[in-house]
Specification:
single chain; about 325 residues; Rossmann fold; 8-stranded mixed beta sheet; about 40% helix
């Protein structure tokens, strides 16, 4: 599958010494976008998922309120995505109850809550769950502090909570964490420091991609990284969140929140998903923002093809960071 810079290359694609070994990829985000990308890279890289814990809806929200623990839902999705195989245990982890007092809860969320209660640590609960599922790679919360996502809307209102923000339907001006300075997970910082590639997106821009970067330690670790930092542009506009957004608008919002030196290149799809409203790729606008643009045929029916995206990202790790600028 060709990997094509969307402007005439001024340098050659030369493998670095890193590319002869198993590439170390760090993926930041949450939701279905992150779990999808993990399925694509787990077989061909040493992957670490740095996951947001701001979900406050459904089963995750109930357990968060009842047990005072970080939201387990996005972590659960990532553990399942990185499981060694689609075993019965993995299927059980994703099973959601439909009746009785447990209705709406997934078994995996309850398992994480039970381990957190038993061990006294959400961090240890995640590690033990990874061992039970024979996870390929690592899943690390961006922070284990209790944080809430808060949005300032374009109409001036303040909306608190990830679920309320996603359901509001109004345009979002900014998002922030409350409290604003949670401690970054040490293993997340270590993974970023040792990475060969840092990946942001795809996923909901304001409620999945940005929250890990709003953790000060995570943001500064990404800023200090000496390896390519890639933003995977969403295929589709998200109703109520990024309607009317071009690819450059995504980068502009990231810059507004965390600074203009966290993205080296944007990966876009050269074909469209079969359903939904596509995100227009304004290559000129992206280049004016100082980022390289790479394109490949990555779209599936309505989301990225996980295997194609994974292979493309591993190839992108071969670009030397200094040459991307």
């Amino acid at each position: 599958m060709p990997l094509i810079p969307d402007q005439p290359p001024q340098f050659e694609l030369v493998p670095t010494s890193r590319s002869r070994n198993r590439v170390r990829v760090v993926c930041l985000g949450g939701g279905t976008g992150l779990s999808m990308i993990l399925r694509g890279v787990k077989r061909i890289s040493n992957v670490t998922a740095v996951v947001t814990t701001t979900d406050d809806g459904g089963s995750s929200g109930r357990l968060r309120r009842d047990f005072g623990m970080p939201a387990p839902g996005d972590v659960r999705h990532c553990l399942s995505a990185l499981a060694e195989d689609e075993s019965l245990v993995n299927q059980l982890f994703e099973h959601r109850f439909t009746d009785g007092e447990l209705a709406g809860h997934s078994f995996g969320n309850l398992f994480l809550a039970g381990l957190t209660d038993l061990l006294g640590s959400f961090d240890q609960a995640v590690s033990e769950s990874a061992r039970v599922l024979a996870v390929v790679g690592r899943v690390v919360p961006s922070t284990t502090d209790m944080v809430e996502l808060v949005a300032e809307m374009e109409d001036g209102r303040t909306v608190r909570g990830e679920t309320a923000i996603a359901a509001d339907g109004s345009s979002i001006r900014t998002v922030r964490l409350d409290p604003p300075d949670p401690a970054a997970h040490p293993r997340a910082l270590q993974a970023i420091e040792r990475a060969d590639l840092v990946v942001m997106g795809p996923g909901s821009l304001f409620t999945s991609t940005l929250p890990p970067l709003l953790v000060p330690g995570i943001r500064e670790a990404v800023r200090a990284a000496k390896v390519p930092r890639i933003y995977v542009c969403n295929l589709l506009q998200q109703p109520g969140e990024t309607e009317g957004y071009r690819a450059s608008d995504h980068i502009a919002r990231i810059y507004e929140h965390v600074g203009d030196d966290l993205v080296d290149a944007v990966l876009v799809s050269r074909n469209r998903a079969e359903h939904g409203v596509p995100v227009p790729v304004d290559r000129g606008g992206l280049r004016r923002q100082g980022v390289r643009v790479f394109g490949a045929r990555l779209a599936g029916e309505w989301q990225h093809d996980a295997d194609k995206l994974g292979r493309t990202l591993v190839r992108l790790s071969r670009w030397n960071r200094d040459e991307l600028q």
